Please model this.
Amino acid sequence: MSLDHYFIQLANHKLKKTPKRIEILRVMNSKNTYFSPQELWAMLKEKFQKIGLPTVYRILQQFQEIGIVASIQKEDNQLYYFLCSIKHSHHHFICRKCKKVSCVEYCDFEQIKKSVEEQLQSKAETHFLQIEGLCKDCLES
Amino acid sequence: MSLDHYFIQLANHKLKKTPKRIEILRVMNSKNTYFSPQELWAMLKEKFQKIGLPTVYRILQQFQEIGIVASIQKEDNQLYYFLCSIKHSHHHFICRKCKKVSCVEYCDFEQIKKSVEEQLQSKAETHFLQIEGLCKDCLES
DNA sequence: TTGTAAACGAAAATCATTTTCATTTAGAAT
DNA sequence: ATTCTAAATGAAAATGATTTTCGTTTACAA
Model:
Protein backbone atom coordinates (compact mmCIF):
# COMPACT_ATOMS: atom_id res chain seq x y z
CA MET A 1 0.00 0.00 0.00
CA SER A 2 1.15 3.55 -0.71
CA LEU A 3 2.36 5.56 2.25
CA ASP A 4 0.03 8.36 1.18
CA HIS A 5 -2.89 6.42 2.60
CA TYR A 6 -1.24 6.54 6.01
CA PHE A 7 -0.27 10.20 5.67
CA ILE A 8 -3.92 11.02 5.08
CA GLN A 9 -4.86 9.15 8.23
CA LEU A 10 -2.23 11.09 10.16
CA ALA A 11 -3.69 14.36 8.87
CA ASN A 12 -7.24 13.22 9.63
CA HIS A 13 -6.26 12.72 13.22
CA LYS A 14 -4.09 15.83 13.53
CA LEU A 15 -0.93 13.83 13.98
CA LYS A 16 2.10 15.59 12.53
CA LYS A 17 3.98 14.00 9.68
CA THR A 18 7.30 13.71 11.48
CA PRO A 19 10.44 11.97 10.20
CA LYS A 20 10.18 9.27 12.86
CA ARG A 21 6.57 8.50 11.99
CA ILE A 22 7.34 8.46 8.28
CA GLU A 23 10.23 6.07 8.80
CA ILE A 24 8.20 3.70 10.96
CA LEU A 25 5.51 3.64 8.29
CA ARG A 26 8.14 3.09 5.58
CA VAL A 27 9.74 0.19 7.44
CA MET A 28 6.44 -1.44 8.36
CA ASN A 29 5.09 -0.96 4.84
CA SER A 30 8.14 -2.56 3.24
CA LYS A 31 7.11 -5.97 4.57
CA ASN A 32 3.79 -7.35 5.78
CA THR A 33 5.35 -8.84 8.88
CA TYR A 34 4.87 -8.02 12.52
CA PHE A 35 7.48 -6.07 14.47
CA SER A 36 8.36 -5.67 18.12
CA PRO A 37 8.95 -2.11 19.34
CA GLN A 38 12.58 -3.10 19.95
CA GLU A 39 13.02 -4.32 16.37
CA LEU A 40 11.64 -1.10 14.98
CA TRP A 41 13.83 0.89 17.35
CA ALA A 42 16.92 -0.95 16.11
CA MET A 43 15.98 -0.19 12.52
CA LEU A 44 15.29 3.49 13.23
CA LYS A 45 18.62 3.87 15.00
CA GLU A 46 20.33 3.20 11.68
CA LYS A 47 18.72 6.32 10.29
CA PHE A 48 18.48 8.64 13.28
CA GLN A 49 21.25 9.39 15.70
CA LYS A 50 18.72 10.32 18.33
CA ILE A 51 15.71 8.11 18.69
CA GLY A 52 14.26 6.91 21.95
CA LEU A 53 12.41 3.68 22.56
CA PRO A 54 9.50 5.55 24.19
CA THR A 55 9.02 7.39 20.91
CA VAL A 56 8.56 4.08 19.13
CA TYR A 57 6.07 2.91 21.74
CA ARG A 58 4.20 6.21 21.56
CA ILE A 59 3.99 6.17 17.79
CA LEU A 60 2.82 2.55 17.67
CA GLN A 61 0.10 3.26 20.20
CA GLN A 62 -1.06 6.30 18.28
CA PHE A 63 -1.09 4.35 15.04
CA GLN A 64 -3.17 1.70 16.73
CA GLU A 65 -5.57 4.34 18.04
CA ILE A 66 -6.13 5.87 14.61
CA GLY A 67 -6.63 2.42 13.14
CA ILE A 68 -3.67 1.90 10.84
CA VAL A 69 -1.81 -0.56 13.04
CA ALA A 70 -2.93 -3.66 14.92
CA SER A 71 -1.16 -5.78 17.48
CA ILE A 72 -0.82 -9.43 18.34
CA GLN A 73 0.46 -11.14 21.42
CA LYS A 74 2.78 -14.08 21.12
CA GLU A 75 3.62 -16.71 23.73
CA ASP A 76 6.40 -14.51 25.11
CA ASN A 77 3.73 -12.04 26.28
CA GLN A 78 5.20 -9.24 24.24
CA LEU A 79 3.22 -7.10 21.87
CA TYR A 80 3.98 -7.11 18.17
CA TYR A 81 2.65 -4.59 15.69
CA PHE A 82 1.80 -4.63 12.01
CA LEU A 83 0.06 -2.36 9.53
CA CYS A 84 -3.64 -3.08 9.28
CA SER A 85 -6.30 -0.61 8.24
CA ILE A 86 -9.31 -2.88 8.29
CA LYS A 87 -11.98 -1.41 10.51
CA HIS A 88 -14.55 -4.18 10.81
CA SER A 89 -14.13 -7.40 12.76
CA HIS A 90 -11.71 -9.79 11.18
CA HIS A 91 -8.91 -12.17 12.09
CA HIS A 92 -5.25 -12.68 11.42
CA PHE A 93 -3.26 -15.43 9.83
CA ILE A 94 0.35 -15.41 10.93
CA CYS A 95 3.08 -17.26 9.09
CA ARG A 96 5.30 -19.01 11.59
CA LYS A 97 8.24 -18.93 9.19
CA CYS A 98 8.35 -15.43 7.69
CA LYS A 99 6.18 -13.64 10.30
CA LYS A 100 3.88 -12.28 7.64
CA VAL A 101 0.43 -11.28 8.84
CA SER A 102 -2.57 -11.66 6.54
CA CYS A 103 -6.04 -10.47 7.34
CA VAL A 104 -8.78 -13.07 7.14
CA GLU A 105 -11.99 -11.37 6.20
CA TYR A 106 -14.21 -14.33 6.67
CA CYS A 107 -14.83 -16.50 9.66
CA ASP A 108 -18.03 -18.38 10.13
CA PHE A 109 -18.44 -17.31 13.69
CA GLU A 110 -22.18 -17.86 13.57
CA GLN A 111 -21.54 -21.59 13.44
CA ILE A 112 -19.15 -21.49 16.38
CA LYS A 113 -21.37 -19.10 18.29
CA LYS A 114 -24.37 -21.36 17.85
CA SER A 115 -22.40 -24.39 18.95
CA VAL A 116 -20.99 -22.65 22.01
CA GLU A 117 -24.32 -21.20 23.03
CA GLU A 118 -26.01 -24.57 22.77
CA GLN A 119 -23.25 -26.33 24.66
CA LEU A 120 -23.11 -23.82 27.49
CA GLN A 121 -26.54 -22.20 27.28
CA SER A 122 -24.68 -18.91 27.30
CA LYS A 123 -24.54 -15.87 25.08
CA ALA A 124 -21.37 -15.49 22.99
CA GLU A 125 -20.70 -11.83 22.28
CA THR A 126 -17.17 -11.41 21.03
CA HIS A 127 -14.46 -13.73 19.92
CA PHE A 128 -10.79 -13.61 19.16
CA LEU A 129 -9.32 -15.93 16.58
CA GLN A 130 -5.72 -16.13 15.54
CA ILE A 131 -4.48 -18.68 13.04
CA GLU A 132 -0.89 -19.74 12.54
CA GLY A 133 0.65 -21.74 9.76
CA LEU A 134 2.69 -21.36 6.61
CA CYS A 135 1.89 -18.65 4.08
CA LYS A 136 1.71 -19.13 0.33
CA ASP A 137 5.27 -17.96 -0.28
CA CYS A 138 6.78 -20.11 2.45
CA LEU A 139 4.83 -23.13 1.24
CA GLU A 140 6.24 -22.74 -2.25
CA SER A 141 9.86 -22.33 -1.22
CA MET B 1 -14.01 -31.40 40.84
CA SER B 2 -12.49 -33.12 43.85
CA LEU B 3 -9.08 -31.93 44.93
CA ASP B 4 -7.93 -35.55 44.96
CA HIS B 5 -7.69 -35.45 41.20
CA TYR B 6 -5.14 -32.66 41.48
CA PHE B 7 -3.25 -34.34 44.29
CA ILE B 8 -2.82 -37.37 42.08
CA GLN B 9 -1.42 -35.17 39.35
CA LEU B 10 1.00 -33.61 41.82
CA ALA B 11 2.17 -37.08 42.86
CA ASN B 12 2.44 -38.21 39.24
CA HIS B 13 4.83 -35.36 38.58
CA LYS B 14 6.74 -35.67 41.84
CA LEU B 15 5.51 -32.32 43.11
CA LYS B 16 5.13 -32.26 46.85
CA LYS B 17 1.74 -31.73 48.42
CA THR B 18 2.58 -28.56 50.28
CA PRO B 19 0.17 -26.31 52.19
CA LYS B 20 0.61 -23.47 49.68
CA ARG B 21 -0.15 -25.74 46.74
CA ILE B 22 -3.14 -27.24 48.49
CA GLU B 23 -4.52 -23.81 49.30
CA ILE B 24 -4.08 -22.53 45.75
CA LEU B 25 -5.90 -25.60 44.47
CA ARG B 26 -8.63 -25.15 47.08
CA VAL B 27 -9.16 -21.50 46.19
CA MET B 28 -9.10 -22.10 42.43
CA ASN B 29 -11.38 -25.10 42.76
CA SER B 30 -13.94 -23.18 44.79
CA LYS B 31 -14.92 -21.16 41.73
CA ASN B 32 -14.48 -21.76 38.02
CA THR B 33 -13.15 -18.27 37.43
CA TYR B 34 -9.75 -17.05 36.35
CA PHE B 35 -7.33 -15.50 38.82
CA SER B 36 -4.35 -13.20 38.58
CA PRO B 37 -1.25 -14.21 40.57
CA GLN B 38 -1.80 -11.10 42.67
CA GLU B 39 -5.38 -12.04 43.48
CA LEU B 40 -4.31 -15.49 44.58
CA TRP B 41 -1.49 -13.99 46.61
CA ALA B 42 -3.94 -11.72 48.43
CA MET B 43 -6.15 -14.69 49.24
CA LEU B 44 -3.25 -16.82 50.46
CA LYS B 45 -2.01 -14.04 52.70
CA GLU B 46 -5.19 -14.39 54.71
CA LYS B 47 -4.17 -17.93 55.59
CA PHE B 48 -0.38 -17.79 55.72
CA GLN B 49 1.66 -15.20 57.53
CA LYS B 50 4.59 -15.84 55.21
CA ILE B 51 3.80 -16.24 51.56
CA GLY B 52 5.75 -14.68 48.74
CA LEU B 53 4.42 -13.63 45.36
CA PRO B 54 7.18 -15.61 43.59
CA THR B 55 5.83 -18.74 45.23
CA VAL B 56 2.44 -18.10 43.65
CA TYR B 57 4.04 -17.55 40.25
CA ARG B 58 6.15 -20.68 40.63
CA ILE B 59 3.21 -22.83 41.63
CA LEU B 60 1.02 -21.55 38.81
CA GLN B 61 3.74 -22.25 36.26
CA GLN B 62 4.25 -25.74 37.60
CA PHE B 63 0.54 -26.41 37.56
CA GLN B 64 0.44 -25.26 33.97
CA GLU B 65 3.36 -27.53 33.09
CA ILE B 66 1.70 -30.60 34.57
CA GLY B 67 -1.52 -29.74 32.79
CA ILE B 68 -3.96 -28.88 35.56
CA VAL B 69 -3.98 -25.13 34.99
CA ALA B 70 -4.31 -23.03 31.85
CA SER B 71 -3.84 -19.33 31.27
CA ILE B 72 -5.49 -16.59 29.30
CA GLN B 73 -4.31 -13.14 28.39
CA LYS B 74 -6.62 -10.20 28.70
CA GLU B 75 -6.30 -6.77 27.14
CA ASP B 76 -4.19 -5.57 30.06
CA ASN B 77 -1.44 -7.98 28.94
CA GLN B 78 -1.46 -9.77 32.25
CA LEU B 79 -1.74 -13.50 32.60
CA TYR B 80 -4.72 -15.04 34.37
CA TYR B 81 -4.92 -18.64 35.46
CA PHE B 82 -7.71 -21.15 35.95
CA LEU B 83 -8.05 -24.86 36.60
CA CYS B 84 -8.27 -26.87 33.39
CA SER B 85 -7.24 -30.49 32.99
CA ILE B 86 -8.28 -31.02 29.40
CA LYS B 87 -5.33 -32.30 27.40
CA HIS B 88 -6.52 -32.14 23.81
CA SER B 89 -7.05 -28.98 21.77
CA HIS B 90 -10.03 -26.99 22.88
CA HIS B 91 -11.13 -23.42 23.52
CA HIS B 92 -12.35 -21.23 26.30
CA PHE B 93 -15.52 -19.29 26.86
CA ILE B 94 -15.05 -16.48 29.34
CA CYS B 95 -17.94 -14.75 31.05
CA ARG B 96 -17.33 -11.01 31.04
CA LYS B 97 -19.47 -10.55 34.13
CA CYS B 98 -18.49 -13.29 36.60
CA LYS B 99 -15.11 -14.25 35.05
CA LYS B 100 -16.08 -17.88 34.85
CA VAL B 101 -14.15 -19.92 32.30
CA SER B 102 -15.82 -22.81 30.49
CA CYS B 103 -14.07 -25.19 28.17
CA VAL B 104 -15.54 -25.51 24.71
CA GLU B 105 -14.87 -28.95 23.41
CA TYR B 106 -16.12 -28.39 19.94
CA CYS B 107 -15.07 -25.91 17.33
CA ASP B 108 -15.44 -26.58 13.66
CA PHE B 109 -11.95 -25.50 12.82
CA GLU B 110 -11.98 -27.57 9.64
CA GLN B 111 -14.45 -25.11 8.17
CA ILE B 112 -12.36 -22.11 9.15
CA LYS B 113 -9.15 -23.82 8.10
CA LYS B 114 -10.56 -24.60 4.68
CA SER B 115 -11.79 -21.07 4.22
CA VAL B 116 -8.50 -19.52 5.30
CA GLU B 117 -6.43 -21.86 3.16
CA GLU B 118 -8.54 -21.12 0.10
CA GLN B 119 -8.45 -17.39 0.70
CA LEU B 120 -4.72 -17.20 1.28
CA GLN B 121 -3.49 -20.37 -0.46
CA SER B 122 -1.66 -21.06 2.76
CA LYS B 123 -1.53 -23.92 5.25
CA ALA B 124 -3.28 -23.31 8.57
CA GLU B 125 -1.64 -25.36 11.29
CA THR B 126 -2.75 -24.10 14.67
CA HIS B 127 -5.34 -21.71 15.89
CA PHE B 128 -6.28 -19.92 19.04
CA LEU B 129 -9.89 -19.08 19.74
CA GLN B 130 -11.23 -17.32 22.76
CA ILE B 131 -14.89 -16.45 23.15
CA GLU B 132 -16.35 -13.90 25.52
CA GLY B 133 -19.90 -13.33 26.52
CA LEU B 134 -22.36 -14.00 29.31
CA CYS B 135 -22.55 -17.40 30.96
CA LYS B 136 -25.77 -19.28 31.74
CA ASP B 137 -25.92 -18.09 35.35
CA CYS B 138 -25.29 -14.44 34.50
CA LEU B 139 -27.87 -14.59 31.73
CA GLU B 140 -30.50 -15.83 34.16
CA SER B 141 -29.84 -13.28 36.87
C1' DT C 1 14.29 -40.54 62.86
C1' DT C 2 17.10 -38.96 59.38
C1' DG C 3 18.75 -37.44 54.88
C1' DT C 4 17.96 -35.04 50.77
C1' DA C 5 15.87 -32.99 47.03
C1' DA C 6 12.26 -29.97 46.55
C1' DA C 7 9.91 -25.86 48.15
C1' DC C 8 9.98 -21.48 49.97
C1' DG C 9 10.83 -16.36 51.51
C1' DA C 10 13.23 -12.30 50.95
C1' DA C 11 15.48 -9.38 48.22
C1' DA C 12 17.17 -8.11 44.11
C1' DA C 13 17.17 -8.49 39.11
C1' DT C 14 14.98 -8.31 34.65
C1' DC C 15 12.54 -6.47 31.14
C1' DA C 16 8.66 -4.52 28.66
C1' DT C 17 6.25 -0.50 28.87
C1' DT C 18 4.95 4.17 30.62
C1' DT C 19 5.54 8.66 32.66
C1' DT C 20 7.71 13.06 33.47
C1' DC C 21 9.60 17.07 32.05
C1' DA C 22 12.50 20.08 29.56
C1' DT C 23 13.63 20.94 24.71
C1' DT C 24 12.71 20.80 19.84
C1' DT C 25 9.88 20.93 15.73
C1' DA C 26 5.87 20.66 12.26
C1' DG C 27 2.77 23.24 10.35
C1' DA C 28 -0.76 26.89 10.83
C1' DA C 29 -1.19 31.82 11.10
C1' DT C 30 0.76 36.10 10.10
C1' DA D 1 9.61 34.10 4.92
C1' DT D 2 8.87 34.57 10.03
C1' DT D 3 6.55 33.70 14.12
C1' DC D 4 3.85 31.13 17.23
C1' DT D 5 2.05 27.21 19.59
C1' DA D 6 0.59 22.76 20.36
C1' DA D 7 2.43 18.48 19.42
C1' DA D 8 6.45 15.57 19.31
C1' DT D 9 10.65 14.02 21.13
C1' DG D 10 14.81 12.48 24.12
C1' DA D 11 16.61 11.39 28.38
C1' DA D 12 16.02 9.62 32.56
C1' DA D 13 13.38 7.75 35.88
C1' DA D 14 9.27 5.18 37.25
C1' DT D 15 6.20 1.37 37.00
C1' DG D 16 4.74 -3.13 37.33
C1' DA D 17 4.61 -7.89 36.05
C1' DT D 18 7.48 -11.68 36.28
C1' DT D 19 11.87 -14.16 37.27
C1' DT D 20 16.18 -15.25 39.52
C1' DT D 21 19.28 -15.99 43.30
C1' DC D 22 20.44 -17.86 47.37
C1' DG D 23 20.16 -19.17 52.02
C1' DT D 24 16.73 -21.59 54.98
C1' DT D 25 12.94 -24.71 55.67
C1' DT D 26 10.08 -28.72 54.79
C1' DA D 27 7.80 -32.93 52.67
C1' DC D 28 8.44 -37.38 52.36
C1' DA D 29 11.17 -41.47 51.18
C1' DA D 30 14.39 -44.53 53.30
